[in-house]
Amino acid sequence: MINIQGVNYRYRNAADNALESISLEVQPGKILGLLGPNGAGKTTLISLLSGNLKLQSGSILVDGTDLQNLHKNNPAAVCLAPQDFAFYPSLTVGENLTFFARISPKGEGRRTAEAQIEFALDFCQLSHVLKQPACSLSGGLQRRLNLAITLLASPNYLLLDEPTVGVDPQTRAFILESVKALSQSGLGVVYTSHYMEEVEAIADQLAIIDGGKLLRYGDKSALLESRSSLCLKLVNLSEEESRAKLAEFGNVEVAPADDCVSLEIDLLTTVTVGQVLAAVEGAGGRICEVSYGRPKLESLFLGLTHRSLRD
Ligand SMILES: Nc1ncnc2c1ncn2[C@@H]1O[C@H](COP(=O)(O)OP(=O)(O)OP(=O)(O)O)[C@@H](O)[C@H]1O
């Protein structure tokens, strides 16, 4: 398990901490979805875990070993698949894999370089483009090569920074399935993405950060099931009137809609649906459509951060 305790980080000359009192765990065999709007601190946290930034305060233990010792003694234990492609564009897929397999750190019980390449090729389904220069591959295949190179080290924990940026839907589905399969084989995964539906689909646990602080952390199902959301379409009340009348019942998000006001209320646990409907009708509003249930991750996120993933 990666155990992160009380981690703070401040960049040189920065007025504020980029991370403040972050404590969370990454468990083997589980996917932690790390979510936050731009500038929240996701990359800073991932960079600390991957050793690209040095820990300033707090502690990070990986299976009981202090991160600094781990990077010295078993650097392959935690590997990062960076958002920017990290391969040689003019080398072929095969040459890239051979090169990175040779230089990838080898710990006890790791596969040989040949076995590593075979596994990565097979897992990322790249055998058919083995002899093609990396720069000639489609964006989706390049993303798969990026992942294959990270897997060469046979990590115990995998850090994925926006692994589906700029890929076609097929590759996205492929990457999501692959990540799920890796976690089922025992890897602990940290997965950051700006695509909320992806994180909702594959994460077992969620950490939502903003302004360097951890706003919510826990089991995805517990975080989402502990809340209920009421969606309404109504007429005879303006957006502003609806917000003003309903704010006491929970966080209100209004979506653009033709000829009506469409809104979603993240209901406070003490509030009943009947109370909200009565308040709308009492204020002169007419309800055209109602649905009630578990909120989507997106509305939980918006309610907490009041920002979309990309401002
Ligand atoms: N090298 C740096 N020097 C100074 N401040 C930095 C540096 N890198 C990041 N920051 C600041 O630290 C905070 C956290 O940034 P970070 O890149 O970790 O956020 P993020 O959640 O990854 O954002 P994004 O989704 O935009 O990549 C921001 O306020 C950012 O401006």
TrEMBL record:
Residues 2-236 form the ABC transporter domain. Keywords: ATP-binding, Nucleotide-binding. Coiled coil: none annotated. GO terms for molecular function: ATP binding; ATP hydrolysis activity. The keyword ATP-binding applies. It comes from the Bacteria. It holds the Pfam family ABC_tran. This is ABC-2 type transport system ATP-binding protein. It comes from Simiduia aestuariiviva.
